[in-house]
Amino acid sequence: MVFKYKTPLLPPDRPPEREAPEKVQLFVVRHSSFFILAAVLVAQLLLLSAQITRNQKVRLIQVWAVAVLEPFERAIHAVTESGESTWENYRGLFTAHEQNRDLNFQLVGARAEIQQLSEQAAETRRLRELLEFKTRLPFQTVAAEVIATSPGDASRAVFIDKGEDAGIASDAAVMTPGGIAGKVIAVFARTSQVLLITDTSSGVAVALSDSRVQGIVKGTGQNSVELQYIMKDTPVASDEAILTSGLDQIYPKGLVVGTVAQVTEGNIYKIIKIKPAVSLDRLEAVLVVVKPRSTEMQALGSPVRP
Could you tell me if residue 46 is inside a domain? Predict the structure, then answer.
């Protein structure tokens, strides 16, 4: 068999497409008369507007120019004013922020100064009360400040800034205008350790203010004490004052220890909880008794009230 190859059909030759600039040029050439006429009309219109004046001798071309350019001028003016307003607002906010920060700093400083002045005023008031109380006491005392507390929850002791150099001796009574706080258990050159009446190893000889029945106040380890060895048939009133009896040879007679907070009946003795007269957990300034002679202690028969 003989195969015959057919020649593929080629598309007829097409004229090459014109480029865009040539199309534009051809369009202008074809309509040249129209463009010339339009240019002549615009030129005549401009010449006429330049010659024609309105009521106030303003040329018409100027009126048209103003009418055309005015929207653009207004837009530019609005944008400019908006930018200036935004900038002024930003400057105002920045200035207000700086002023607010300065005022906050001043406020913090003023609060700190007020707090410091309040603390100084409170300290002055405490010292004045302590001095007034000291002048009413019939025995010699030394003023001291609490400088530290003993570590540990079980310990109820504090350190004061007076010691042997101030004439303080062991077993000296420590008090405040409100009442007794404890006794000195250790004396050093310039400091002393004070055992508070709330400590479990503390004991104070006391008497009920109304019946004058005597007992012993023992610490509970918390911020409270108990009155022990009061017979169950002894009448004890709520809020009755508890005063030192002076029999322990440590605390002068008649000092306030606290008030009766709760009374519970027992088998032989009453269980009496006492609220201390002094907030021992906030102790700051105290008076330490320069231990008087026993005869002087027994001579203090009248209670010493704050």
Answer: no
The partner residues of 262 in beta bridges, in order of sequence, read 273
Mean pLDDT value of segment 252-259: 92
Average pLDDT, integer, range 121-143: 80
Structure tokens at 219: 């610490």
- Any idea what DSSP says for residue 164? G
pTM listed for this prediction: 0.58
The better pLDDT of the pair 94, 17 is held by 94
Joined tokens for residue 285:
């300034």
Instruction: Please give the Cα distance from 9 to 19 (Å, whole number).
Output: 28
CA distances from 11 to 4, 17, 18, 152, 273 (A): 22, 16, 19, 110, 124
Tell me, yes or no, whether 91 and 126 share the same domain. Answer: yes
Q: Is 150 exposed, middle or buried (0-12, 13-18, 19+ CB in 10 A)?
A: middle
Q: Are residues 205 and 64 in the same domain?
A: no
Specify which residues 142 forms β-bridges with.
288
- E strand or H helix at 141, and its extent? strand 141-149
pLDDT at 192: 94
- Looking at the structure, tell me whether residues 238 and 201 fall in a common domain: yes
Write out the residue range of the structural domain in which residue 111 sits: 52-136
HEC per residue, 24-90: HHHHHHHCHHHHHHHHHHHHHHHHHHHHCECCCCCEHHHHHHHHHHHHHHHHHHHHHHHHHHHHHHH
Q: Examine the fold and report which residue of 86, 116, 136 is the final residue of a domain before the chain moves on.
A: 136
Q: Are 195 and 204 in contact (CB under 8 A)?
A: no
Q: In this structure, are residues 177 and 130 in contact, taking their beta carbons and an 8 Å threshold?
A: yes
- Pairing state between β 203-208 and 285-289: unpaired
Q: Are residues 188 and 72 in the same domain?
A: no
How many domains does the chain divide into?
2
Sign of torsion over alpha carbons 241, 250, 220, 153: positive
